[in-house]
Amino acid sequence: MYESTWMFCLKRILTLPFVLLGVSILTFVFIRFVPVEPAEVILRLAKVAPTEEAIQALREELGTDKPLLIQYLLWLIGVLQFDFGTSFVSKLPVAHELFAKLPATIELAVAAFVLILVLSIPLGILSALYKNAIIDKIIRLFSILSVSIPTFWLGFLLLYLFSLKFGIFPTNGKGTLAHLVLPALTLALPTIGLFVQFIRSTIIEELQKHYVQYAQLRGLKNSVILMRHVLRNAAITLTTMLGLTLGNLLGGAVIVEQVFSWPGLGRYLIESIINRDYPVVQCYVLIIAVIYVLSNLCADVLHRVLDPHLMTKGRRD
Amino acid sequence: MKLTKYLLPFVLFLSFSIFAGCTSTDTEKGKTATQTNDGKMITIGWPLDVGPLNPHTYLPNQMTAQAMVYESLVEYNDDGTITPKLAESWDISKDKTSYIFHLRKDVKYSDGTAFNADNVIRNFDAILANREIHFWMGMVNHIVEVVKEDDYTIRLQLDEPYYPVLNELAFVRPFRFLGDNGFPEGDATQDSIKAPVGTGPWVLTDYKKDEYALFSRNENYWGEKPLIEHIKVKIIPDSESISLAFENEELDLIYGRGIISLDNYSYLKDSDKYKTATSEPLSTKALLFNTQSGPLAELKVRQAIQYAINKEQMVDSITHGTEKVANTLFWDAIPYANIDLAPILYDSEKAQQLLDEAGWTLEKGEKIRSKNGQPLSLDLIYIATDAIQKPMAELMQGELAKIGVQLNLEGADVMVGLQKLMDDQVDINFWRTNGPPTDPHGFANESATSNASGVYEAKLGLPNAKEIDTKIHQLLVGTDEEERVQLYTDILTMFHDQALFYPISYETNNMIYHQYMKNFTPRASEYDIPYAQMDKEQ
Question: Are B366 and B404 found together in one domain?
């Protein structure tokens, strides 16, 4: 059966609330597995003896004394009214602070995304076309290295080289384009390594297919074959991966933000986990989940546009 | 393929243009803009945001920032003396329950409003409206009322004598003063303040949460004005990143305890490119033994552990000589703590002998001592993110294994460690003193009442725990100075003899600054950074 892209989007958007519901329930339960509850942490931070009475009084104030289900429902009702609760620590509305920090994280993730596109596609193509030549070997070594180095170490390595030794970029903070380069590169490099390998193998695979040989026999220029056919076919799977990447980049920014003092969501999340600030963690996970699901949806739509088979699959069968 | 001819140059061009594009703008805008070549400003790195600068509350307010903006009635000096600050003098009644403070008349808040008795009372009222969050400060339990005597005189009335009143008033929070224009509606300062208006030498002039806070000289300041015009506190959460930012001249100095790892500190120091200084000790790093149950309920086991560890070597190798070995719980300059106590020095044979005497013996072929079939196995919790605790714990594990004691290590966060100690689920915790001005009376308070520090619980197994509590109460409310000296001597001696703590090292403020900065002396304070003395060479 033919399904229009609009219909497809609509269906997917309709499933979004269920995905978010599942994610929020899991977060709600898992965060409560972290030892030492918020009431006790708050008392200890204030150097107050965490006696049973004091803890109970604070639980009532925070609302953590109610049964888990009631707590969840109260939270859910709030969220449906766009009230994401109040931070246990700062006593300020959670959404206010999180949305204030979200742009910085998105800026970082988008910059990394652009770097991934701009660097991994040409490098992957180059590596495939010069298969087993020295340039291919160099690119493959680069991609293996960038995938294997832990992010925080990569961050410090880049800081050491490009800030300290060559004096090109500042070591911390946010503001100019220069501030963005190293954090974005650190965030992007592992994915670039992965993508280069992926693009390389996809193109090599495509180049061996019959349609390429036919096209060559038809006298088409190699550049035309590559651009119009090979890359287009390779792009189909690549878009799905890119869709997943944006979500990964947002979630993975936590460590990069720490190393480069980037004032985004990640740092706030770390502090909130240490302080057992449940509402903040819950809201954070929800935001990331929404972005994740939406970026996946975009990838799927793009996938369908690039590969019309998908739209008519039912009819052909 | 023909295309490859074009692709290679394209990729190379692209890669270069990305980097070159950035570098050309960066060398002008990026680096020079962030490097601190401004002669009128000093930039320092700090791991946490300065917070809302509320003088009456705790975290997320950073003490070092609160101390820049707000002042106390009296000041605690590094030598343990107390001198006037916003109060030019004070009288204490004969029964030591009434403190009359004469306020300075030349003090104005940074917004030009007056500092007077009405404002002081308003601050006290706002603080005491939430007594429960300040109970850790013993004085709060004793304040009956704070009343205005005249425009520049106030009286603090206690229910019974409590000798450390001045020390507690000197502390960075909560007894510091907010200008009238900073008060929120209903004076509910425990929730928020309207603006950080203080009498201190610095005013917050620009602030971006989690990025930086810019403080400028308070031109209304009543005291000696700072030499430099601005202080920028850059928020850099990672200690390695602070070091790198300093090396890259984006910071003028690094100052504080534990701001960067001691490895990094000695690396920078040994490079001979920078000036360094270390303050007098401000606090003590120690192990706290849980005597509630298990092998550590026995004195000889506690003593044996102390004899078994080569502390000199441990402290020297792990702190690279930046911390001094501690043999007593308090450093000599801490009031009442300069007493003669026999240090427990490394003596592995003595450790084994003590364990033998206690009945913990090593069976043939066994590696761990046991008593009545129970192995001598102890749990130690360290803070997983602490760069010093982990290597120390591992080193001690090795040392204790040599005398047949099994030490099990568990990395956790601070909260988990404290909870386990208080619930009697762990044998040994790392512990540190609070430092002046709340030591040693703050330590006494914590030891005698159940609170967040865990000392009260840990000492429950001591045979003289009750006696210690009684003496602590006597010394806090006693009025006779000689008697107090004696009581402190008794208590600290009892703790020492009972080997409840294993003092490891005295912690200091470490400071590294660039050659272009003028010399100054670091303070032995957790929150007072001597910004006023700092300046750059012209």
Answer: yes
Q: How many Å apart are CA B202 and CA B77, to the nearest integer? A: 20
Work out the minimum CA distance from B133 to partner chain A, whole angstroms.
6
Considering the domain architecture, whether residues B398 and B437 belong to the same structural domain is answered as yes
Residues of chain A neighbouring B240 (CB-CB closer than 8 A): 156, 259
Asked if residue B391 and residue B310 are part of one domain, the reply reads yes
3-state secondary structure of B179: coil
pLDDT per residue as tens digits for the range B486-523: 999 999 999 898 888 999 999 888 899 999 888 888 88
Q: What does DSSP assign to residue A165?
A: I
Of B244, B450, B452, the CB nearest to A163: B244
Least confidently predicted of A61-65, B67-71, B235-239, B341-345: A61-65
DSSP-assigned states of every residue in A96-121: HHHHHHHHHHHHHHHHHHHHHHHHHH
Helix H or strand E segment including A194 = helix A177-207
What CATH code is carried by the domain that includes residue B136?
3.40.190.10
Q: Are B389 and B525 in the same domain?
A: no
Give which of B428, B419, B395 is closest to B501, Cα–Cα: B428
Say if residue B79 is in the same domain as residue B166.
yes
Q: How far is CA B219 from CA A232, B38, B230, B535, in A?
A: 67, 20, 12, 17
In degrees, rounded to 5, the angle at the alpha carbon of residue A182 between the alpha carbons of residues A177 and A185 is 105
**CB distance A288 to A294 below 8 Å:** no
| Cβ neighbours of A214 (radius 10 Å) | 11
Give A-chain residues touching B26 at CB under 8 angstroms: 168-170, 176-178, 181
CATH code: domain of residue B472? 3.10.105.10
Q: What is the ipTM of this complex?
A: 0.76
Distance (Å, whole) CA B369 – CA A78: 58
Is some CB atom of chain B closer than 8 A to the CB atom of A199? Answer: no
Q: For residue B27, what pLDDT band results from cuts at 50, 70 and 90? A: very low
Own/partner pairs, A36-42, CB within 8 angstroms, 24+ separation: A36/A276, A36/B413, A36/B415, A36/B416, A36/B419, A37/A64, A37/A276, A38/A62, A38/A64, A38/A88, A38/A275, A38/A276, A38/A277, A38/A278, A39/A64, A40/B415, A40/B419, A41/A275, A41/A276, A41/B415, A42/A88, A42/A89, A42/A275
Task: Answer for the pair A38, A276: CB distance below 8 angstroms, yes or no.
Answer: yes
Q: Which residues make beta-bridge pairs with B114?
A: B108
DSSP state of B363: -
Q: What is the count of structural domains for chain B?
A: 3
- State residue B79 phi and psi, 5-degree precision: -85, 5
Q: What percent of chain A has pLDDT over 90?
A: 2
Instruction: Give the separation between CA B131 and CA B42, rounded to whole angstroms.
Output: 38
Domain around B112: 71-191
CB contact under 8 A, A261 and B238: yes
